[in-house]
Amino acid sequence: PRGDPWQDYYQGIAPSVDRQAKLDAVGAALRRAAPASVLDLGCNTGVFSLLAARQGARVVAVDGSESCIEILYATARQEQLPITPVIANIACPTPPFGYLGRQYDGLWPRVAADAVLCLGLMHHLHVNARQSFERIAALMGEVCRKALIFEFVGMDDANMPLLSQRRPIDYDVDTVIGALRAHFGQIDV
């Protein structure tokens, strides 16, 4: 696959960042939820998709980067893990189609899962894809049957300057939690 900057994302994380802490937290949340199926939105090279599959879940992993999905596909195939890698633009997913637009469902009904991972994605959806937190929360509510594992990415995140901010961006954790409350009764922070 042709490379893109996102396939090296994990190698670019500063050594001062405790990557194991995030792996442990997501792993513990997945064990508590014990999902049969997991949807990993914005999966990158699939670090957390692999974690979920190794814990026994069937995983659909979605990302817009072909090179990231190719890396995940090779790893999942090598380890014979139940992961379906999908190249898709989360902000512009496959719509329903076929006769009268009702023959085949769009992407979201086809990939809905017991647990959804939305890790390191919310700021991409809000800044680049120009989606409100209410719309992001509505998508999570539509695809999630049981448990959402959602990572808040603050305005001070090191990658924020890399995102195209052609308008004023201002949010905080309370804004995001407020939007998620409309779709999820219990929220643990």
Describe this structure in words.
It is built from seven helices and five strands. It has a five-stranded parallel beta sheet with strand order 3-2-1-4-5, with helices on both faces. Strand 2, helix 3 and strand 3 form a beta-alpha-beta unit. Helix 6 packs across helix 7.
What is the structure about, briefly put?
This protein has 7 helices and 5 strands. The chain has 189 residues and is of the alpha/beta class.
Task: Provide key terms for this protein.
alpha/beta, 7 helices, 189 residues, five-stranded parallel β-sheet
Order of helices and strands: HEHEHEHEHHEH
Mean pLDDT: 91
Q: What share of residues are in beta strands?
A: 15-25%
Overall morphology: globular
Give start-end ranges of low-pLDDT stretches. Answer: none
Radius of gyration: 16 Å
Quick one: how many beta strands? 5
